[in-house]
Amino acid sequence: FIMLDMDNFKKINDTLGHKKGDELLIDFAKLLRKMTNSKFIIGRLGGDEFALFTVAENQDKDEFKNIISHQLEALKNEFMAEFKEYNETCSLSVSAGAFVSLNKDINYNELYTKADSALYQSKQMGKNTYTVV
Fold this sequence. Notes:
- The protein is an alpha+beta fold.
- The protein has helices at 9-16, 18-35, 61-82, 84-90, 108-124; strands at residues 2-7, 41-46, 49-53, 93-98, 130-132.
- Strand 2 and strand 3 form a beta hairpin.
- Helix 1 (9-16) packs antiparallel against helix 2 and helix 2 (18-35) crosses helix 3.
């Protein structure tokens, strides 16, 4: 379960307008779809927060955490390239927190809480980064 948040998104709405902010949300959702395979469920949680969910069967936990880290690094780099002008004008970037569990009986609230905590760690490290736990 991965939570993503666009850093400094409010600045987009405040300086470029809500229409531009809405367009950016749509473009970010398209980028998420482009950067993930069809096994990922993508959802907007609200505002500028999105979530990704996938099930990886028969994966070693550390190996899967490594895969997720590589995917988040690629996403971060693609985000910075695709939205470069917004980074330059409004310091727009993306932070993420991911929680990997082997427990098949885990519920949504626990997934959300753990991924949200990982996202908070990323924000505490200065934004534009990701944490995988």
